[in-house]
Structures are given as C-alpha cells and as structure tokens.
Amino acid sequence: MSTLTGHLHTALRLAEQGMPVLPLREGKGPMGNCRACRKNVCGGRPNMKTPGPCACSAPCHAWAAATTNPHILTSAAWAPAWRQAAAIAYHPGGAGFTVLDLDNPDAVAWARQNLPATRTVGTTRGEHWIYLGTMTSPNAVRPGVDIKSLMAYARWLGVGTGTMAPLPDAVQALAVREPAAVRLASRPVTAAAPVGGGQCPHRSPAYLERGIAMAEGRIEEAPDGIHRTVYRMFLAVLSAHGRCGCLTNAHIARLFTAAQAKGESLRHCEDAWTNARTQLGM
C-alpha cells in the first residue's frame, strides 16, 4: 500500500467514526491556503459550525478544513494535498474530544499526579491525553502543556490505550487565566490607524465612540467563531472610520483588548486588521 493510499485509507476510516480529518504536510503543519484564500483574504478562519466563509473546495484554513465527508476527502480538489501529505490530523472539538498535549516527560509526570486517567497516545516527546468533552484550545497553559479541542487540530497517532474519561474540571481550569496573566498590553499594538484623507464627515466624537463600543460589545458577546467575529468587526470599523482620520491607535487598542480578552492572540488580531485593510483597499 502506497503512502498516499495509506493516509487516505486511514482518513476515510476515521471519518466513518465521526472524526473530522485533514492531511498534514511535512513538519506536521496544515496545508497552505490556496491562491484565492492566501493570507486569509477570504475572511480568515471560519467559525465552528461551517467549513469556511468562502466556497473554496481545497483543504484550506487548517483545522477548519477537517471533514467527515468521504466525497470531499476523495475529491480532485483534495488530491494534491494527499499527494503531499506526511501525516493525518483531526479536529478534536469536532469529534467531541479534548486533547491534552503533554510535550515532555515533566508534563507527563505532572498529569499523572494531578489528572484522572484517560485514553493515552504516545508522541515523539510525550503523550496525548484524550478526554470526552470540548473546550477552548489555549496553548502553554503550563510548561509543556497545550490544549487542543475547539478550533484546533491534533495529529493522529493511533487509537492509544485506556478508556476515555469525561473532561475534568481540572483540565478546564487550565484555560482560566488570572486577569494579570492575560497580558493584554504585553507589547504595543503594532497595527496603525489609516491616515485620513480629508475632513472627518462625522458630526461628533460620539458617533465614533458608539461604533467602537458596538464592535467591542459584539466581540465580547460572541459565543463562538471569535476569529470571524473579530475580522468582521475590524472590517466594519475600518469601513466606517478608516478613511477620514478620526480613528486613532487608542481606538485600535480598545478593539485588540476586547479580542484578546476573548482568547484571541495578538498575532491573530494583527492578521485580522491587516486583512480587513486589504479587503477595503487601504
């Protein structure tokens, strides 16, 4: 059996079991976006419930490309990705799982002392502990420990051993950061406000304030799909205020702060801001 056939055969078997799967390139990374979606100009990462905000048929957008549809997995659009595939990944959250990625022996020892036993899969440097249930997917929750569940992918390394236990409170607590640990101002916001092209058409500062407050509120209230929500709010603010000169770096910092408080990384904020400006031709 060839490598290509082997990976695809395994992917189809996992998909039958309800695991959304996708091919990984050499180095365990996802396939790069196609030309139409390069640098996420199509809108960035999609939310949890749909395969994407665009009609792309290729395995774009990392974890969000994962699917259980055998027709998509065996389609001509996915064939080039399978030819390059060095491994298979799955979307744990889409399968109802949470993977605790223990990256070294110290992390494994900590888990054995502090967490209930569950299904365990060996990795090259440590172990994956798999629990039944979903949660957010923060990285570096403690030394050598990442969480992969919603909006994340994990490499498929086999069935493992042991019985899968319910997601414990102790694992969910790892994702709860103290306010000081969020580090919203760990470094200055690097996104700059566009230069105004003329006199501001807004009649009062209150108009801008309402727009910023509305965007902050939409981000804070988003139940899921935070990547897409952040992009859409950035796009809305820039569309209304990005060309007249009234938008300042202080306003951008407020938007970034709201997004980071929901778990968005500074890098993703900067990418979303850049993509929104690109979309609007700024």
Question: In words, what does this structure look like?
Answer:
- By secondary structure, this protein is α+β, with helices and mostly antiparallel strands.
- It contains 10 helices and 8 strands.
- Strands 3, 4, 5, 6 and 8 form a 5-stranded mixed β-sheet that branches.
- Strand 4 (119-122) and strand 5 form a beta hairpin.
- The termini are far apart.
Any descriptors?
282 residues; alpha+beta; 5-stranded mixed sheet; 3-stranded antiparallel sheet; 10 helices; 11% strand; globular
Low-confidence segments, given as residue ranges, are 45-52, 178-188
Strand content: 5-15%
- Written as H for each helix and E for each strand, in order along the chain, the element string is HEHHEHEHEEEEEHHHHH
Tell me roughly what share of residues is in helical segments.
25-40%
SS element count, helices? 10
Mean model confidence by pLDDT:
81
Name the structural class.
alpha+beta
Distance between the termini: 51 Å
Counting DSSP E segments of at least 2 residues, the number of strands comes to 8
Round the Cα radius of gyration to an integer and report it: 21 Å
Main beta sheet, described?
5 strands, mixed
Please provide a brief summary of the model.
This protein has 282 residues and is of the alpha+beta class. It has helices at residues 3-16, 70-73, 79-84, 92-95, 105-114, 169-174, 205-221, 226-241, 249-261, 266-279, and strands at residues 21-24, 87-90, 97-102, 119-122, 127-132, 145-148, 154-155, 165-166.
Layout of helices and strands, plus pairs?
Blueprint: H1 3-16, E1 21-24, H2 70-73, H3 79-84, E2 87-90, H4 92-95, E3 97-102, H5 105-114, E4 119-122, E5 127-132, E6 145-148, E7 154-155, E8 165-166, H6 169-174, H7 205-221, H8 226-241, H9 249-261, H10 266-279
Parallel strand pairs: 5-8
Antiparallel strand pairs: 1-2, 2-7, 3-5, 3-6, 4-5
